[in-house]
Amino acid sequence: MLEAYAHNKVTPKTHPSCFTMGSKKNPPQFLVNEGWAPWSWKDKHYLVAKQPGSKISFEVDLVAMGVVLIYYQRSRTFGLGDLKCWIDDNVDKAEIFSGYWEEDT
């Protein structure tokens, strides 16, 4: 949590979790998967979709001020598309992650 310390405040116990495509012990569980597939390169593991409009969803369980991190690949030469992400039904607060960037890969 990101708040000032208070000696009499009880902080709720949390059970953080991490899901990664390369995990054999704790891989992500998909609620919806329309067009996404696992893909690996060297020691990196990804999900890829080749059709615009492909959808995937995961259950995310946040306690208090939880944090969700999204790691994605960007490239100037790979022809990568954009990714639109949101939590719950808050599509109006979606973030767009662009697969294109000017840096050399």
What labels describe this entry?
105 residues; two-stranded antiparallel sheet; mainly beta; two-stranded antiparallel ribbon
Strand arrangement, largest sheet?
A: 1-4
Span of the ends, CA to CA? 36 Å
Q: Kindly state the percentage of residues in helix.
A: under 10%
* Alpha carbon gyration radius: 17 Å
Largest sheet: 2 strands, antiparallel
Structural category is mainly beta
Mean pLDDT: 85
Overall shape: globular
What features would you describe in this structure?
This protein is 0% helix and 28% strand. The chain is mainly β and 105 residues long. The strands form three sheets. Strands 1-4 form a two-stranded antiparallel sheet. A two-stranded antiparallel sheet has the order 2-3. A hairpin with a 2-residue loop joins strand 2 and strand 3. The protein starts with 29 loop residues before the first strand and ends in a 7-residue tail after the last strand.
Give the SSE layout.
Blueprint: E1 30-34, E2 36-41, E3 44-49, E4 55-58, E5 82-85, E6 95-98
Antiparallel strand pairs: 1-4, 2-3, 5-6
